[in-house]
Amino acid sequence: MVGQGGPARHGGFQEYVIPDNSSGEGWAIRFYPDIMQTELENAGQAPKYYWAPQQLRLAQFPDTGDYKFSHVHFAGVLTEDANVGVETELETVGGLLAFTTTSQPPPAVMQQAEAQLHERIRGNNDPLWRWSNQNRRPDITMVPINENRTTISSLAPDASPLRPDDGAGGGAAPRGERELITRRGIRHGRDLRSRERELGAWHVQLDGQGAGSTTGGENAYGGLLGMIPSELVWTALHGGATPFTVSQHLLIPMATPAATISIHGNWRQVYEHFSGQAKGSYLFFSAEISAEVENLRRSGALTVRVVVDTTVPNAAEIQKQMEEDKDLIVNQFLEAAKKTIFEPAAPDEKAAEAQSRPGPWSVGLAFKLVRKQIDLDLRYEEERIFKYNYPDTISSQLEGLRRRIKASPDEESKYFQRVILGNLGTKLRRIVRPVFGEEDPAARMVVEFGYPSTETTLAWKGTEFTRGGGPEQNWIPEWVQLRPGEAKAPPADWQPDVTYLRRSVFFDQSSATGRNLNNRTIVETDQMRLDPQGGTPTSEMAVDVRSNDGMLDVTLFLGAYLSASNERVEVEIRPHGKTIRGADRPTQRFMWNENDQSEPRRLRIYTGQPDYQPRFDYRVRCMVLAPLGKPGGQDWTGPWLTAVGGDVLTVTIPDPDGEGVTRRSLTKREARALRAGLDPAETAVDDGLPAQDGEAPAGAGAGTGTVGSNGNGNGRIPTGTDGSSTWPVSRPVREARRAPRATPPVSGYKL
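Request: output the structure for the sequence above.
Response:
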């Protein structure tokens, strides 16, 4: 039985281009005959042929036909406030490219190519391309590949593609070439947070180059692109043409017919020729040796002769092809030269030389010129079937994807994505600031935030602020924002950017900021919860905590001019609603006279009820005192009106004859209280004098709950019927009553 000798290049080849309906591209497939074809036929065996890939294509998934290609263009402005792991701010833009190529045509394409080959060789008389025994189907397999080195053309300026290394060990590219790929990209050994780690605008680093499949399988590539190459890839594949080329540099073992190769020369002359070309270095790459062998042949210092067995079909043509086959001749020359003037270079020596020398000499083996035995004649002669590595390069621009997107734009989303960075590492942040007013009775504030987790419904964290903690005190709680479906049993209608807020304000009921009757603060409870137990959902980043929620705040200005000292104006305020304990809120009264009429009056009630509506009723009372010892005096009171707190209220004097106005004369006791600078409604004040005609006894009508109505005159904080605190209190009543007072003049009034 005749064995197979291997593919023969010198017998010619057959190439067919087969259309591929799945991609719209054509596949070029080349066939070579086996060198032992004649012997196989004479032995009655099936003819042997080899197919060699001539093109690369994007690989496809067998079940869907989709290409194995993905381009993600990303951009992001990442900040410390919004993203986990970022200090201050980071801007980045670039692309992530991944694709897989194959040189293996689809089965349907191979069937068509083999059918065309059958038609070509059926009944043919060419001994290498003949199929005589129709009972024996031709045996067709892929050519053997000794080496496959893959490269991708550069997408960056002033850079070269990663070139293959023909070293015996299939090692990595020389250090100089590896640095070429990364010099615009990430610098190694630096802090990840440094700006030097960011992608350069022209950065290109695609892994997968180098050693590739030798069985016609797939080769995968992937890596990072800077902003400009990423946009070029995106734009080109959506329109014009693919912006890069993928190549495979193959070494295919080819066989020659039975032939005699003789190489004659003088080793000293050859050695001196290479020494003259060394230029300071005695390291030669295979590409340089090939060029110098041609120079030696042209100068006559080296003679090469090939004799092919004349019994071989087309012997003369094959002989001419073999003589012109540089790779065949150089292979045989090196076999002899390694015994005399060359020895393989060490890997580190080769890498260093490749880095320092210009030109494409890093491709192939490297040999060091040495002086062994040069005083000999070069006589190489051998007769046999020679096998040598035939270099063949196939490449492609991967046009199939561009054509598919152009024909079916709706498929674009399968292969291209634009991503705004930060969504997977989003930081959820809240900035909490307490607001303590200058006269605020709040002593401290407690703030809590709850956020769902992967382990519990809500995980709470909190802090406390105290008065006097400084104007810069704040709290910044942070979380990694969850995505929908990651939280364990979150509250209903929860969204990933929602947190749950609980705030409590604690008041100091015993504190006082002064004893001014014109500026009163009432605290009805020692604690106010601003939010329900489950928290208030919020997506706001900035949160201020204040104690004025549920507060009635009224500022009063007198809207008339008091022209005499015997004129008084009183405003009576009746707050709406009940206290947190269910009691009615006490009525508050404010009074103006000629001396303090320009000063505003203010009432603040801290209800401890966050949902309290700050409304109140008020009415205005006007009084004109009669001269001392004279009966009467004027007194009229307007109707009750309703107003809303939180704004300035100008007190308007009611018309004495207006609708709803009540008129009467002042009693002697009321007149005396007014002359003493006291509220005439304070009937509980014990002035130490017996009641006069028509007056009620001292203490009658007590219990209004107003400021100064404690009845003891000792200046202590009065307490309302619900236990709430009121301050500041009035001056000690007895001192106010006993102080000397001037008799007011008799005059008219201009209220």
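Residues 159-196, 349-364, 683-690, 692-751 have pLDDT under 50 and may be disordered.
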